[in-house]
Design goal:
mainly alpha, about 0% strand, rod-shaped, membrane, Transmembrane protein, transmembrane helix
Length: about 90
């Protein structure tokens, strides 16, 4: 045999395998949860952007497909600028 157990009992090996499986599963659940949280946040941001554009344009309706393409300029750069934040009790920029 090329593999030696180095004095570990079968119980220790099973516990080590269970620990590794638990660790991998826990990290996988965290990653999946983070993916769905980010997906919901992206959808909320899209809805905010659509309502902001619809409110700014008055009675003109905005097609949902045109919002994503309307953010980019012809040269591939971004044309969207984040709104300024107001600091409570501070000086506005």
């Amino acid at each position: 045999m090329t593999y030696r157990s180095r004095g570990r009992s079968m119980v220790e090996v099973v516990l080590a395998v269970c620990f590794v499986v638990f660790l991998v599963g826990f990290i996988t659940v965290l990653c999946i949860g983070n993916y769905f949280r980010a997906k919901r946040a992206q959808e909320r941001q899209r809805q905010r952007r659509l309502s902001k554009l619809a409110g700014a344009s008055g009675n003109n309706s905005v097609a949902p497909g045109s919002v994503a393409t309307g953010m980019y300029t012809n040269d591939g750069g971004m044309s969207y600028e984040a709104p300024p934040h107001v600091m409570a009790g501070g000086v506005q920029a």
